[in-house]
Amino acid sequence: MWSPERQAGPTKIVGPAYTVKYVRNNHGTDPKPPSHYIDSIPPGSVVFISAPPRTVNAVYGGLMSNRAKYRGAAGTIVDGRIRDLQEHRDLDYPVFARDVGTTAPAEVVRVSEIDVPVRLQSEDQEATICPGDYLVADLNGVICLPKHLAEQVVDLMASQVNADEKIARDINQGRPFAEASKEHRAFVKNV
Question: DSSP characters for 70-118?
Answer without folding.
Answer: HHT--EEEEEEEE--HHHHHHHT--EEEEEE-SS-STTTEEEEEESS-E
